[in-house]
Amino acid sequence: MKNQNEKQESKTAGEILVPLLLGLGVVIVVLGILLFGGRKPIKEEEGSLEGVQSITVLPTQEIVIGNQKMFLEVNSPTDGAQVSTNKITVSGQTMSKAEVSVNEKDLVADDNGNFSTTVSLEEGENFISITAGNENGFEEKEIVVYFEK
Fold first, then answer.
1. Does some domain include residue 61?
2. Is residue 27 within a helix (H) or strand (E), and if so which, with residue range?
3. Is 37 among the domain residues?
4. For a Cys staple, 116 with which of 41, 59, 91, 100, CB 3.0–4.6 Å?
5. What is the DSSP letter of 84?
6. Number of Cβ atoms within 10 Å of the Cβ of 52
7. What pLDDT digit, counting tens, does each position of 32-74 carry?
């Protein structure tokens, strides 16, 4: 008797489980149709997206806008200049907010890319090393200035 009851209980559980899963599947399909059925597929036409009200962009990597190559121009002094004072102003232009180093003295270019600093000179030949850099790369220039009293 017990074996027949166990078989009946299993059969009853199976009879309940199958319709329950089918019912759950039907509910999911109906919800999908209700939520997404009335939307048109996105089509690109003349640079616009038809039927799109907003777009959310989640970048997976850094986005760089205006990726320009780093540049460095030294306006003053000119290479090979001969001066009669032991201090000289080194100025030039690079990219906005670039990190600049003049003979290992660190500074930051302004919003327009301008930089300026004073360098002390020793009598004779003086090498001035100027480096500018940011996330786009770096540029380096070396000029020679001659100081004679």
1. no
2. helix 2-36
3. yes
4. 91
5. S
6. 11
7. 777 766 555 555 445 555 665 665 655 544 434 455 677 899 9
Whether 96 and 45 share a structural domain: no
3-state per-residue secondary structure call for 111-125: CCCEEEEEEECCCEE
Whether residues 43 and 78 share a domain: the answer is no
DSSP for residue 90:
E
pTM beyond 0.70, yes or no: no
* Nearest residue to 137 via CA among 111, 99, 90, 103: 99
pLDDT of residue 62: 42
Which runs of E-coded beta strand occur in 36-136? 44-45, 48-49, 72-76, 81-83, 87-94, 99-102, 105-108, 114-120, 124-134
**Whole-angstrom distance, CA of residue 108 vs CA of residue 130:** 12
Which residue type does 124 have?
G
Which amino acid belongs to residue 69? K
Q: What is the C-alpha separation between 19 and 25, in angstroms, rounded?
A: 10
* C-beta of residue 123 within 8 angstroms of C-beta of residue 147: yes
Give 119's strand partners: 88
